[in-house]
Amino acid sequence: MGREGMRAGDADRQQVADQLKKALDEGRLDLGEYDERIQRAYGARTFADFDGLLDDLPGTIPVQKSQIQPVPPVPGAPVSAAAEAPGRRSGVQPAIGLFLLCTVIWGISSLASGEAYYFWPAWVLIPVAFAVLARLGDRDKRRH
Question: Do the Cβ atoms of 121 and 110 come closer than 8 Å?
């Protein structure tokens, strides 16, 4: 199936319309050209119907000439922390720190009022528990 048969979706039409609006705002299209092209863009049923709408505008590449090329990794680029230390609990440690901060706030407010309030910082531990369980599940999958 070629471009003539490939159906265009609403997101594709909106993307072309946004590019046409940008060209109108920059003065690259007059209102008549914009109106004609926007009607064609919203009436497009296939990708072939978009041909000619953006070809004469700078910064756009006609679909038939565009290519997807993989980007090679840059030598010497820093590696993400997750890739460096797969066993590190990066999602759990900040949540525990947040729990401790909430506990301190709870403690100060309870001392200031003279009574022990409901221990609401415990609710912060629920996502921590889910994160720990997810890590344990991932660890079991890696062993097999």
Answer: no
DSSP state of 124: G
- Look up residue 34 and give its two tokens: 């914009």
Q: What is the pLDDT of residues 116-132, one digit of tens each?
A: 889 999 888 888 888 78
pLDDT tens for residues 30-53? Answer: 999 999 999 999 998 988 888 888
Burial (Cβ within 10 Å: 0-12, 13-18, ≥19) of residue 3: middle
Distances (CA, A) of 36 to 30, 53, 98: 10, 10, 56
Please give the full DSSP string across 62-96, using - where no structure is assigned: -GGG----PPPPPTTPPPPHHHH-TT--TTHHHHH
| Main-chain phi, psi angles of 7, to 5 degrees | -75, 140
Angle between helices 10-25 and 31-43 (to 10 degrees): 170
The amino acid sitting at 125 is L
Chain CA centroid to CA 74, Å = 22
Counting Cα atoms < 13 Å in the Cβ hemisphere of 82 gives 4
Give the pTM.
0.41
